[in-house]
Amino acid sequence: MTPSTPSRISIGVDVGGTKVLCAAFNANNELIAHSQVSTKQGEVEIVDEVCKLIAEVINQIILKYGNDTKFTIGIGVPGLVNQNTGQVSESVNLGSHSIDFKTEIRKRFGLNSVIDNDVNAAAFGAYHYYGSDSSSLVFLNLGTGVSAGIIINGSIFHGSTGVAGEIGHIVADTQGRDCPCGQRGCVETIISGTGLSKLWPAKNEYPIASLLRNVSAKNKEAEEVWNKFISTLVSALQIITVTFDPEIIVIGGGVSKTGAILLKGVKEYICRLEQKSSFLSSLKISDRVVIADQEVFFGALGSALIGRRYDDKAKEEN
Questions:
Q1: By mean pLDDT, which of 84-88, 159-163, 258-262 is the weakest?
Q2: Could you tell me the fold of the domain covering 8-121+296-317?
Q3: What UniProt keywords apply to this chain's record, in alphabetical order (predicted)?
Q4: Which among 273, 284, 37, 262 has a CA at the least distance from the CA of 140?
């Protein structure tokens, strides 16, 4: 006997630079099924992989609840997303300049889907997770790349062209490393997982873990890299604060898995700056910053919620 069928299951797909996660949530935002694979490069490959994951999760749900289950689909993907067409462009970390998920999903499943930037989706998930009592939140993702998802008055802020939040491509060091975007010394080349791996190469160990271990051992080179990393991260937090003035700034992504150590480094550096600047002290940046809960699939949750919201609006209009 199958459990009682939920009125609707929301599927969210989080397409990252290293992995693709597909998860299903019920009306209470509880995780009820998920699956993930390593990310493949190229438009055809990534679209096919996403569709296979969606099919796998849908089959899990049907086996549990039966064929009458209704689904909504949302997808978060790196790059610039046209909010009218769902077309993804400039997804450099996926090796593609143009990706169309909507057409293939409609073809395979007969369902509409909603596409947004992956970090926007994570921000939307974080907004609902940390409580929507706050009016504004920014999710700063330190993953394969660096970007920020912005929530203002409970809605994702895309900007006029969808580029809002691409903070990873602000130049922080004009003499720094080349960035895939074509510039040099972008924030992303310093505080992303990819950037850090070039600043501090490590064998058989995550660069951030190796770096922190060497900092603890008083390795001067490691201390220099750590200081550069933290100072650049704090600069990004300052830019976010004075530009959007959010109540909460969530630091997420793979690099954030260092958790309390990362937060301690950020707050200590901010404290030193505040001692020299009453203006910075008045911003209370430290009080705004939290590290993302590593047990929550923020990207997939946010994508699912975006898909659900689209379905709700479509029903209201009909």
A1: 84-88
A2: Nucleotidyltransferase; domain 5 (3.30.420)
A3: Kinase, Transferase
A4: 262
CATH of domain 133-291: 3.30.420.40
pLDDT digits (tens, 9 = 90+) for 21-69: 999 999 999 999 999 988 888 778 888 999 999 999 999 999 888 888 8
